[in-house]
Amino acid sequence: MTLTGVDIIELDRIAVYEALRVVELAEEADWERDTPCAGWDLHRLVAHMTAQHLGFAAAARGAGQDAAYWREPEHMADPARAHRSAATAVLAAFAEAGVPERRFALPDLGGGFPGGRAIGFHFIDYVVHAWDVAAALGVGVELPEHVLGAALAVARQVPDDPARRGPGFAFAPARQVPAGSGPLEETLRLLGRAPERWPVPR
Which is deepest, 28, 67, 93, 193, by most CB within 10 Å? Predict the structure, then answer.
């Protein structure tokens, strides 16, 4: 999951800020809404996003092998605030000098990865999770075309291995991509989402 000639840290920052924007649209009654992540309500999805931010921040600093950093918080009185704190932590960690050249331990993905590639994993997760949250709330996701193009390039590199897709994994099996699909729709379908089930109200 690498992109040549692009600033993956900047792309990731844009995706993370969009995820922050849509999470902070949620009101108290929204946390029990269903999401495109099967079996997860919005509270559980944001708990997962919070844990992933903290885990990637730890990985950027050489501590990714410690499972405690990846553990989802069970009780979040203020999910949006917890998510913002975690997002701030990961953006600060990725902004440190030399991060793309570091080795990231990512236990959920089975080992260690070069920093640039690991940030690519985080980037595609947050493009998709920003959409997941927006879809659950019935709003649109707002990402620039160059970010969506980069996300599609990464999505096309994600192996469609049945042993690594489905329940318990980040992505479901890829879906058919209709002719004429835009970059966001194609990205979502390649990663197992069904955007037609989550239309944004006009």
Answer: 193
